[in-house]
């Protein structure tokens, strides 16, 4: 599953990495940038951050708190 950010120049993909199933941090958050180098946030075209289940759950919690606190229209939120 992924989402595009920053005018679609940054793709964020989140997935369970089965090849890392033996490790506690096997949930991958992948940032892939498709823009000129001087506009990049990350140094590499692709940056991966691996999370544990607890860390992923905490991230979901704080994101949900921010969504509830924001003034965005609930009609904008779709699965």
Structural topology:
Layout lengths: L1 E4 L4 E7 L10 E7 L12 E6 L1 H17 L10
Antiparallel strand pairs: 1-2, 2-3, 3-4
Tell me what the structure shows.
With about 80 residues, the chain is of the alpha+beta class. It has one domain. About 20% of the residues lie in helices and about 30% in strands. It has one helix at about 55-70, and strands at about 1-5, 10-15, 25-35, 45-50. It has a 4-stranded antiparallel sheet. The protein is flat and about 35 Å long. The mean pLDDT is about 90.
- Share in helix: 10-25%
Q: What's the β-strand tally?
A: 4
Radius of gyration: 15 Å
Structural class: alpha+beta
Order of helices and strands: EEEEH
Strands side by side in the biggest sheet: 1-2-3-4
Count of domains? 1
**Gross geometry:** flat
Number of helices: 1
Strand content: 25-35%
Mean of residue pLDDT?
A: 88
Distance between the termini: 11 Å
Describe the largest sheet.
4 strands, antiparallel
Which residues form runs of ≥5 with pLDDT under 50? none
